[in-house]
Amino acid sequence: TRHEFVGDLILMKLDENQREFGGAIGEALLCQHARTRAVFEDRGVTGTFRVRNLNLLAVREGEDERTRTRIVEGGHQLWTDPTTVYYSSRLSHEREGTLDCAIKLQHELGRPLSICDPYAGVGPSLKPLVSESGLVGELFASDLNPAAVEFLRENIHHPTATIECVDARELKERTEMCDNYDLLLVNIPHDSLEHLPHLMPLLRPSGIVRGWAI
Length: 214
Hints:
- The chain has a 5-stranded parallel beta sheet with strand order 9-8-7-10-11, sandwiched between helices. Strands 1-2-3-4 form a 4-stranded mixed beta sheet. A two-stranded antiparallel sheet has the order 5-6.
- It has 6 helices and 11 strands.
- The protein has helices spanning 16-19, 22-32, 92-109, 126-131, 146-155, 192-199, and strands at residues 3-6, 9-12, 38-46, 51-59, 69-73, 76-80, 113-117, 136-143, 161-165, 181-186, 203-211.
- Helix 6 (192-199) links the parallel strand 10 (181-186) and strand 11.
- It is an alpha/beta fold.
């Protein structure tokens, strides 16, 4: 039961006693899930960008071992790769709440929103927002991980979107970005409280922050 679906991949945790049977477990999961292409052991996240350390257990005959995959969340499709970028489906409910929050704010302000997501990853929080007609006015999205930014450019399409690879804490140095955004997304739970003082100058007086902190 300790497994997670990421697109057409299954990532699973194994303890020391299970590891020697990993190949057989992987093959069994392929038999059980017809749409799964490959099964990997997830040995945890590593490095600054919290990417997965994956070990191949089984791959369906005729398929390859690539870890790039397409996920579907809330009816929206996104490309990702767990070995190069961080993505977790566990926050999908919270991301649905972000859409509800944005729609409510738009109704209160009576205009499209200026939105800043400086920890955008591959774009799971932004995809529902840009897919909602008339919701997004100006959009700035960034991430510190260059691989995430490449996926972000592939996944998020909006006529006003600016997408960059930059440290979010440096954005306050850009005068044109200060006091400019109605909605600020802060999805970096372990560092949110440390980063917030650097981010607040970006927010308009009528704007709100939507994020998580641990």
